[in-house]
């Protein structure tokens, strides 16, 4: 039997498909960027048809590049940008509105209204989340309230809703399966993470008809088969997880206390807390790390909205660099005597501030500040934000009796040695970069491969994790303290209230 696995990694800026061989090594990759739509300030949308087209094209390209056919693929694992939602017509499969992306802030007024009505504690107790526009529930409500006839059609059972995994499963199976996994469900503000079910009270508060929602399965489960016409023969879909949770799995963070931080568009730190649902006292999220064999493993999560996106802004907005990879080189040339801070609150600030109305700011400019200082400030902002998250996480985890943690990193940005050294310096802790950087896709592939019985179980999979490089902190403590203080001043001046 074949043991090749196809991982679909549908991210915020690109769709990727990766074929892993039986040794869990990358055999071939397909990748396509797609359009980001910004229809108004703080709004971010994707065209679901473009997402679908790029997913199909990259899957075909990866299978072909690997010199294989669909028959040589044992299973598919799907991982996806989380929280982003689509609502589509059950019969035609066509979306009734563009996907509203996780970064989109348009539902800030609705969140505010629910907060004022005193509903946040109910949402937090049941979902582990906060009332922030980041999560899917208020985005679903917005589409139902703003697309003509949508609410009526939803109530009549003509529409379906889902996060991107659910939309892809629906399309891949030719409209036969409407399902999601527990990690994606846990990001909607509608899913009770203690009881593992959609929560009627929350559905009522957000006025979301239950019939819109998908069946919630384990991360390694039967999600149906792809239509024969798509890739030439049917392929079973056996693994699904939100991308940050998939990276947690791909980094083999299976033990309580293990932590990973992924640096893509945003940055997301996830700490495995085992069977314990640790409640944060520091505005972090309690979420589902994975659910396997009906058993839920929980996590604490710190979510930063802008990490690599700050580098994209340097490239596409400020036009100061030609390629993302140039940012580290440029930062290294910055004048060390300047203290320029960039607070990249382009779409508000996530954990631990959760300020939807804040917008980006730059402090400390002099007549000599130029591209090098901007690049340094952009990359340092990622380290400072991570420091804030980890400080909050340590408090919660220690307060819970947890031991010291080690940080494993991944995502597009960790290719930058300069950024990783800066991260270790600001965190004052070692940072471990693995040899396999495609941990998100690997995590999804492992879910599918282990479910198919062709890849090793968790313990043996963990043994394969290999270190590429450990970055040790080298910065003088006095300098670190001064820099962090400067950062906190800058953040304080950026917050909206
Ligand atoms: N060498 C680099 N130095 C700094 N940033 C980088 C580098 N390479 C990629 N990036 C940033 O990483 C991000 C892409 O990472 P990726 O994990 O593919 O993101 P996503 O899954 O969110 O689309 C981009 O925002 C890009 O600006
Ligand atoms: O697409 P990424 O890798 O930036 O991840 C997005 C997150 O899942 C949003 O919560």
TrEMBL record:
The catalysed reaction is: glycerol + ATP = sn-glycerol 3-phosphate + ADP + H(+)
Q: Which residues does glycerol bind?
A: 82-83, 134, 243-244
Pathway noted in the entry: Polyol metabolism; glycerol degradation via glycerol kinase pathway; sn-glycerol 3-phosphate from glycerol: step 1/1
- An example of a Pfam family matching this protein is FGGY_C
Which CDD domains does its entry note? FGGY_EcGK_like
Lineage: superkingdom: Bacteria
Q: Which residues bind ADP?
A: 12, 16, 265, 308, 412
Cite the SUPFAM superfamilies for this sequence.
Actin-like ATPase domain
Question: Could you say which enzyme class this protein belongs to?
Answer: transferase
Keywords of the record, alphabetical order, are:
ATP-binding, Glycerol metabolism, Kinase, Nucleotide-binding, Transferase
**In which family does this protein belong, per the annotation?**
Belongs to the FGGY kinase family.
Q: What is this protein identified as?
A: Glycerol kinase
- Recorded source organism is Mesorhizobium denitrificans
